[in-house]
Write the structure tokens for this entry.
Amino acid sequence: MKSILNLRYLLALAVVMTVLSSCGKDDGGGTDPLEISGCMDPEADNYNASATVDSGNCEYRGCMDAEAENYNPMANIDSGDCFFARDKFIGNYEGSMIFKDLGGLLNQDSLAFTITPGIASANEVLVGVTIQSIPVFLNGNAVGDSILVDDVYNLPDGGAINPLLTGMPVEVLFSGGVGTSDEGATVSGILDIIFRTDAFDDIVDEATLMGERK
């Protein structure tokens, strides 16, 4: 009888120990009901203030183009609202182009010119001016509130700018830029210009370009 009681005691003890040892153990597929998974970054668009476990899927909407003025380096979802420095300049302008030394030959007191998008980059522009009835399109790059110009135009016959250069090819080098303080409503700036031929020394001048958007 005593041995039976001992056996029952041992069996009961074994059951209790088994139950105690299994308490708190993860069954391999369960989750803590107190855990809330979600984005824990307050700066994220899908921030979950109740989250206790970071889900690793925070979303940041914004412009993802590094050339844009509103580029957001943290963005992982493109918001589609990028805007670029050149956007403020694109348009048609009425103004003037006044040369410092060659004014008698090249001054244009009434000049229609354009600023159009380039194709090489998101901030490239083409500044289209006319010199002695010759259309010239200059490559430029918009940075902030300025367009930086650094380009070369090959003129087949220099007679258009100076009778002494008639029949001579002329290389015209432009550098400098124009800027705006009113989001492109008006632009102004100075272009350094070099007229280069094989027959004569370089002719160096500068021109002030000014215009109002039409």
User: Anything to note?
Assistant: The chain has two helices and twelve strands.
